[in-house]
Structure formats: structure tokens, C-alpha cells
UniProtKB/TrEMBL annotation:
It comes from the Bacteria. Keywords: DNA-binding. Transmembrane segments: none annotated. Residues 34-53 bind DNA. SUPFAM superfamilies: Homeodomain-like. It holds the Pfam family TetR_N. PANTHER family: HTH-TYPE TRANSCRIPTIONAL REGULATOR RUTR, HTH-TYPE TRANSCRIPTIONAL REGULATOR UIDR. InterPro entries: Homeodomain-like_sf, HTH-type_TetR-like_transc_reg, HTH_TetR, Rv0078-like_C. The keyword Heme does not apply. This is TetR family transcriptional regulator. Residues 11-71 form the HTH tetR-type domain. It comes from Thalassospira marina.
Length: 200
């Protein structure tokens, strides 16, 4: 019973710290957000932060994983609304790209994330997105809707294109101006996979 209570308390503390960090990182950026302010906002000590995440960078990784996971879920829900699986896949990629205009996503996931956590393609949340895309590409290749391309290669290039488009938008001086160009190029590149582009 005591172990269960301790596990619940740890889970609650993690959630408090992630929520406080998410707010602070969005408002101030990772570098400017102090650990003392983060822990005070969560009503916890630095010890709780170290115990749960190792350090401030570990906390950023948890926040990025949470937001990026939410982005993937939102994009997949948008894709699922399409009757055509191919259009669903494109809609999913485009939705992910469009999220680069959201301040929280832009600051935490697309700017601070790569700067402090390294290559986004290696993040756990990105790998989950890759697996889901690969499964759909496999089905489309098997049904001859797409050319007989290696599903993993195609999935990596599709997810990579969406991610890099989002990174480009976030880092640009005028993100709203870049968005339509990025989406148009993403769609044109993606349609090269179609078995019969002229009739799709």
C-alpha cells in the first residue's frame, strides 16, 4: 500500500513539474527559465526535479515528448477524418506542419528542443510517429496505391519532410508566409510516391 502511495505521489510530482515547466518554457524559453522558479511554481523542491528528471534538460525532454506526442495525436485525428487513406496521410503531415505556427510548439518543440536535446528524428515521440506512418505506407504499397517503394524509407522521408518543414517555419522571420510554401512543397514531393499520379 505504501509503495502504491509513493508511486502515486511520484507521478503527481512529475505531472506538476511538467506542467510548470511547460508554462515557463513557453513564456521564457528553456535557457531563461530558472529551476528555482519551476520548482516553486510546482510547489516542490529542486530535489524532486533531480529525482524525477535528473536535471533541467531531462525535464525539457519530458515536456517535448508530451507536446510532440500531443501533436502527433492531433495530426492523426485530422488524418483519420479523411475517407481516402492517402489523403489522410497527407492531411496528417500538413496538420503537423501547420502546428509550427503555435507559439508553444514553436518555442519548446521546434526551437529549444533541437537546440538542447539534439536531432529530433531520434526523439521517442518522433519514432512513434514514424512507426504509424510506416504501417500506413505498407498498406498503401501492398494495395498498389503507391509505387513498390520500401515502406520504411518512404515513411522516414515523409515524416522527415514534415518535421523539417515545421522546423523551417519555426526558425523563419515570417512563419505565416513560409507555411503555404512548405505545405505545397510537401504535397508535391509526397505525390511522387503515387503509382498513377495523373489519376489520383
Amino acid at each position: 500500500m505504501a509503495a502504491k502511495k509513493r508511486a502515486e505521489t511520484m507521478a503527481e510530482n512529475r505531472e506538476k513539474l511538467i506542467n510548470a515547466a511547460r508554462k515557463a518554457f513557453a513564456e521564457k524559453g528553456f535557457a531563461a527559465a530558472s529551476m528555482d522558479d519551476l520548482t516553486a511554481a510546482a510547489g516542490l523542491t529542486r530535489g524532486a526535479l533531480y529525482h524525477n528528471f535528473g536535471d533541467k534538460r531531462g525535464l525539457l525532454a519530458a515536456v517535448v515528448n508530451q507536446i510532440d506526442g500531443e501533436m502527433a495525436a492531433r495530426a492523426q485525428a485530422i488524418g483519420a477524418q479523411k475517407d481516402d487513406p492517402w489523403e489522410g496521410l497527407l492531411a496528417e503531415g500538413e496538420a503537423y506542419i501547420e502546428m509550427a505556427l503555435e507559439p508553444e510548439v514553436q518555442r519548446i518543440v521546434l526551437l529549444d528542443g533541437p537546440a538542447f536535446l539534439g536531432d529530433p528524428s531520434q526523439w521517442p515521440s518522433q519514432n512513434q510517429c514514424l512507426m504509424a506512418t510506416r504501417e500506413l505506407v505498407e498498406k498503401l504499397v501492398a494495395s498498389a496505391f503507391l509505387k513498390p517503394v520500401d515502406p520504411e524509407a518512404a515513411a522516414r522521408l515523409l515524416t522527415g519532410a514534415a518535421l523539417n518543414a515545421a522546423l523551417w517555419i519555426a526558425a523563419s522571420e515570417n512563419p505565416a508566409d513560409i507555411l503555404p510554401k512548405a505545405i505545397d512543397a510537401f504535397r508535391v514531393l509526397s505525390t511522387g510516391l503515387l503509382a498513377t499520379p495523373a489519376t489520383r
